[in-house]
Amino acid sequence: MISLLIVAEQPAMRKGLNMRLTAEADFTVVGETGDCETALALAIAHCPDVVLVDADMAFTDGIAIAKILHSMCPKTSIVILSIRDDVFTCKRAEEAGAKAIVVKSLPTDTLLTTIRRVVGSVDFPVATQIDEEKSLAATNKEEVNSNRDMREIS
Fold first, then answer.
1. Exposed / middle / buried, residue 148 (Cβ in 10 Å: 0-12, 13-18, 19+)
2. How far apart are CA 25 and CA 134, in angstroms?
3. CA 59 – CA 53 distance, rounded (Å)
4. Rounded to whole angstroms, how far apart are CA atoms 65 and 70?
């Protein structure tokens, strides 16, 4: 069973992630919070396998939280959720100790696969995960554009 902690400011995002993740037979959510202090307390109390951290919180720097979590719980894998996948964000995430960054606009299956990979594999560079996600997004975009072109022709 993979234990997860969700750190995201928006209650709707936390609830949605919690519902989706607990639908997986091999996942259990041990806590969720929108603030740094509670995140640290929950991480210390539960030592989750993975902490999902929203990088795009309005009142808190999610990547800074990830760095603190990584220093306090080095065996916990941190996955950053972000709207951005630029080089700066990826570098900050990697320097903070994150094992992966998942762009929020990607399909949920990408997040599920990423969680399983970071728990079941050796460290892999954040950039590798990003490149795979960009490739998947590009493939999906090409399929959508291809389907759109076909509809326009017919």
1. exposed
2. 28
3. 14
4. 9
Q: 75 is written with which tokens? A: 């065996």
Burial zone of 139 (CB within 10 Å; 0-12 exposed, 13-18 middle, 19+ buried): exposed
What is the chain's length?
Answer: 154
Q: How many CA atoms lie within 13 A of 31 on its CB side?
A: 20
The burial class, CB within 10 Å (0-12 / 13-18 / 19+), for 45 is exposed
CA 114 to chain centre: 8
Q: List C-alpha distances in Å: 57 to 13, 32, 83, 85, 93.
A: 11, 14, 11, 15, 14
Domains and CATH numbers, the chain: 2-153 (3.40.50.2300)
Closest CA to 34 of 52, 4, 55, 11: 11
Over the stretch 73-115, which tens digit does the pLDDT of each residue have?
999 999 999 998 889 999 999 999 999 999 999 999 999 999 9
